[in-house]
Design a protein that fits this description.
This protein is mostly helical. It is built from 21 helices and three strands.
Length: about 550
């Protein structure tokens, strides 16, 4: 039976909040653990460099592609039911991934995990709005849930390092299973929510968006792989694939502009703070999202660290990211968001330049400090970007604005993994092929060219002197590849920081919201009487209906 929503959260809501931290904790841990597991996966399954990249980022691409569909399913299927179904599928697919015996099998299970992960954030946000109707309590609940994601990023490396120290790489997927079981057991603490009837799903728009992303990334990766291998194969099929993806993207944009109820309201881009913040977050993640992957592989393959030690070192930048995310609450008292975001990007770019220097000199303390500076500087950009994205949209479009933020962030991160991974693979393979390894069997050099983890495995099968020569050449080549990756990071972050400083120089966070356009609007002068962050009143049909768990 339907009941009224209480004005303040009940004890059951606070227990439910603890339950809702589990899915994001699981997905965040899974992301950082996989970085450390890549060398072991490469040595065991012997995937190609392209397959290794798909193992890493196929989940992110499919998550971005279907997150809007999951947002549509929530009101029809029920938010709690969608969340539990997503977590169950995530847990089962993690179990299958742990015992994958072929790269294609692991790619397929990772794809399923990505689609399941797309159901998490839309469901969690919708449930929190019902469980915490009070504005202050809702803000606190959001902070707790998002901090669980940061905590997952932080504990992922040491947890993964311990697991990889004593068990096979499959253990990094098995840790998701007990978390999924725990959430399913305590799911009855969450309310069953039925919102207003969802609009008709634009299935063709969903197809356009997913195919556009996959086609562009597939074409670019395969083109880079063929060029790096020197096979001489024609690249025009991959160029056609990229062109087809761009054409599908254009069709998606055109459909969204003409649809009466679009999946994404692209007209929000007419607001400068919205468009600049969205693009800045996408480009920031494009430049820096894949750098952690390169660093995790470098520490193991070049510095010769065990997974456990590498994981402990990666705690420092993860904690820097958490601290950086909290800084805007203090910095906003003295500086406008555009200045904080711009200077943070410039500082992160300087950290990337320092990383190029320290990686080349093999200075481990310098590498750790540079990594902390990068993550500490990028932390405020996430918080302020989402604030500007949501606050600059009219309240009735806040959901669409938040969805676009998720899509931009996820797409930028996944694209970074693909691009930086391909770039590093090209540089690594070219340098290894030109290293003059005449005494090393050609088959061993070819196998080592697939990945630096594969090179370590191959070198162990060769006689002492020859194996050492191959391993040293592979480590030298991968060092330059990592330097190239961080050089690209700096080349992206510095100009983006300058653009943000100029484009958002007059924007104040407190002047955004309601039906106003983004401008230098003093606080309290919103034209429609709305207060930024205040929820619009709901009528009997618009308000959610809550029934007992």
């Amino acid at each position: 039976m339907a009941t009224d929503i209480p004005r303040t959260a009940t004890w059951r809501a606070w227990l439910g909040l603890a339950v809702l931290t589990l899915p994001l904790l699981m997905s965040a841990t899974d992301m950082t653990v996989l970085f450390l597991a890549l060398p072991a996966i490469a040595a065991d399954l012997a995937p190609s460099s392209t397959q290794l990249l798909w193992i890493l980022h196929v989940a992110s691409f499919l998550q971005v592609g279907v997150v809007l569909t999951m947002g549509w399913l929530g009101p029809r299927m029920g938010h709690r039911r969608l969340l539990t179904a997503g977590v169950a599928v995530y847990g089962v697919s993690s179990l299958v991934a742990a015992f994958s015996f072929d790269p294609l099998m692991l790619i397929a299970t990772r794809a399923v995990m990505g689609m399941a992960a797309a159901s998490l954030l839309p469901s969690i946000t919708s449930l929190l709005r019902v469980m915490f109707p009070d504005t202050r309590q809702f803000s606190a609940a959001i902070a707790v849930v998002m901090s669980s994601f940061s905590a997952g990023m932080a504990i992922g490396p040491p947890l993964g390092g311990v697991l990889l120290e004593y068990f096979s790489w499959g253990s990094v997927f098995l840790i998701n299973v007990p978390v999924a079981v725990l959430l399913l057991l305590f799911a009855p603490l969450l309310p069953r929510v039925e919102g207003e009837r969802a609009q008709r799903l634009d299935l063709l728009g969903v197809v356009f968006s997913v195919l556009a992303v996959i086609a562009v990334i597939f074409g670019l990766q395969e083109m880079a792989d063929d060029m790096a291998s020197g096979s001489g194969a024609p690249v025009w099929p991959y160029l056609l694939c990229v062109a087809a993806g761009l054409a599908l993207g254009a069709l998606f944009v055109r459909r969204q502009l003409s649809a009466p109820e679009p999946l994404l309201d692209l007209r929000l881009f007419s607001t400068p703070a919205f468009s600049v913040s969205l693009v800045a977050m996408l480009l920031m993640l494009l430049g820096a999202g894949g750098a952690d992957m390169l660093l995790a592989q470098y520490l193991q393959a070049v510095e010769g660290m065990s997974p456990g030690r590498a994981g402990l070192l990666l705690i420092a930048p993860a904690l820097g990211s958490i601290v950086g995310g909290l800084l805007p609450t203090v910095l906003n008292r003295w500086a406008r968001p555009g200045f904080v975001m711009g200077f943070a990007l410039l500082l992160a770019g300087a950290g990337a330049v320092a990383m190029v220097w320290f990686v080349g000199g093999e200075s481990l303390p310098g590498i750790v400090v540079a990594a902390v500076v990068i993550q500490l500087a990028l932390g405020p950009l996430f918080t302020l970007s989402y604030n500007l994205i949501i606050a600059s949209a009219p309240l009735r479009k806040a959901g669409s604005a938040a969805a676009m933020g998720d899509v931009a962030g996820g797409f930028g991160n996944a694209l970074s993994l693909a691009f930086l991974g391909s770039l590093a693979a090209v540089v690594y393979r070219r340098l290894l092929d030109g290293a003059g390894l005449e005494e090393v069997p050609a088959g061993a050099v070819e196998a080592a060219g697939e990945s630096v983890g594969g090179a370590t495995a191959v070198a162990g099968t060769l006689p002492g002197g020859i194996g050492t020569e191959l391993l040293e050449a592979a480590r030298s080549a991968f060092t330059v590849a990592v330097q190239t990756g961080y050089g690209f990071t700096a080349a992206v972050l510095v100009p983006v920081g300058l653009v943000v400083l100029w484009a958002l120089r007059g924007v104040r966070l407190e002047g955004l919201g309601g039906e106003t356009t983004v401008a230098e609007v003093p606080a309290g002068e919103a034209g429609d009487g709305h207060v930024p962050g205040e929820r619009e009143p709901q009528d009997a049909r618009g308000g959610p209906v809550v029934s007992g768990g």
